[in-house]
Structure formats: structure tokens, C-alpha cells
Amino acid sequence: MELAQIRMFKTVANLGSIAQASVALHCVPSNVTARVKALEAELKVSLFYRQGRGLCITPAGEVFLTYAEKILALTEEAKRAVDPTSEPSGPLRIGAIESSATSRLPPMLTKFHAQYPNVELQFKTGTWSQLVDDIQHHRLDGAIVAVDIDRPFLDSTTFFNEDLVLISSASADPIKSVKDIEGKALFMWPEPCPYRAALATWLNQNKVKAPITSIASYGTIIGCVSAGSGISLVPKGIYEQYQSGMGLVGYEFEELVTIENRFIWRNDGGQFPALDAFTQMIKQNNHGESPSNHSQHA
Q1: What domain range is 20 assigned to?
Q2: If you count Cβ atoms within 10 Å of the first and of the last residue's Cβ in the chain, which end, N or C, has fewer?
């Protein structure tokens, strides 16, 4: 079994196609096919179902893929470990929940790229559970989430303390207290979104009932609120980004708790200059406060 075989297998598994894998690996399809078949012969299992021109991974392939990801990640770790004084370079795979990815993270990524141009930043968004799973299986090096995650293989640091803003259309009646939400339509991310949980707790404490519609997109939520269809509770960074030209009004209430966004990463990765530099930059900037804007305090 060779690293090249494992890398080919992982590429085919990710792309579901020999042809696409060969393009990604810069080799001919017959070479990829031969190496994957040789790997299957050595393992004495089928790693893929052949379906027309495409491939579908088998249950045995799913199991082997988990180990393949670990093997390739450890290989990269070994390369880094022998050169602990190297400047940050190579790929750095970062993930984030949409609210941070949209509002708070871009300035950090811009600053990091300017300071460490040899690092190849790779970025994706997802739910916090997806991001944690990606880190656990070495598909991401770190991620920003809005929940406190206690896992033995993870370390974390504060990324940003996010205030919450209740938003409505400027044409709607003002919201002076939680009682003004009674019966109004609410648009929130699906559970287990921590911002939705904060809203639900606030409503329950005040015995206020309002129907919640689940929408997994801040753009769509903002569109619905702007059209006057209802209201939402969003991170202040999202409100600041969308308020201009959208006809929105924001309301801040002391009872709504600040949600801590945290950057998480594996604590068993050994030397990793690019990740260390990114984490250090966050630690140096994580006490900044969001700029005040045109939300109203109640």
C-alpha cells in the first residue's frame, strides 16, 4: 500500500469519478483505475460500486476512507514536524458558521493573507455539527462555531462575542418590549441554532408565543423581514451588513445574552505553523468590539 494509492482513492471517493479524479491528480484515468484496483486487491474488498460512468463508495470503502483521511493528515503533520522553524505556508482549511463567515471572518482572512501570502487558505461554511465532524475527520484544520464544544481532541479560543439584534421592517410597528412579539411571525435558522435557542428562552421566560419558521439562509431571512413578513433575531454583524438599503430596524434588549463565537481546532496535530499563526492572530484580535450602529436599545 502506497501513499499515492491512498491519495488516489480519497480523490476518487470525494469526486465519485475516475475521470474527474485523473484531472485533479494530473494523470491518465487508466493509471487511477489500475492503482485503485490494486488497492482493492490488497485489501481484498471492493471499495466502490461501478454505476455507469460513475462510482459509488461501498460500506467497506467508507470505513477505509476514514483511515485514509487520518493517514494523509498524519503524513502532512510529519512533514511539518521535521521543520518546526518554517514560515507558515501550504494549505490551511478553515470553516465557519454562516453568520461569522458573512460578517466577522472576512477582515480576518484578508489580514491573514496579507501577512502570510504563502498560506493557501481554503474555506467552507456549514452548521456547527458539520464543522466539528470535518475537524474530527481531518477535512478541516479549524472552524468558527457559536457553541461551546467540549471534546477531548479539541482546543478553542474566543473569536468574537456577538451581540444579538431583533430586526423588523422599518414600516412595521416598533418593538418596545418582548410583549410586542406576541403572535408575530419569526424567521430563524433551524435547530440547534444557538441564536434561535436564545430567542426561544427569552420568549419562554416572558410567556410570549410566536410561530417560528425555519430558514437556513440569512439572505432569505433578511428578505422576508425586509418585506414585512415578520421579524428575526440575528447576530449584530449580520444586521450591520444588511441594514443599509434593506429598510430594516434593529432593537437590542439587555435580556438577550451575548453569544460567544469560538475558533476550534484539533489539539493533537503537532507542529502546524499556518494554523498556529491563524490562532495567534485570533487571540490578538478577539477582544475587539463590534462598532456601534443604528440599532435601538429597549
Answers
A1: 3-81
A2: N
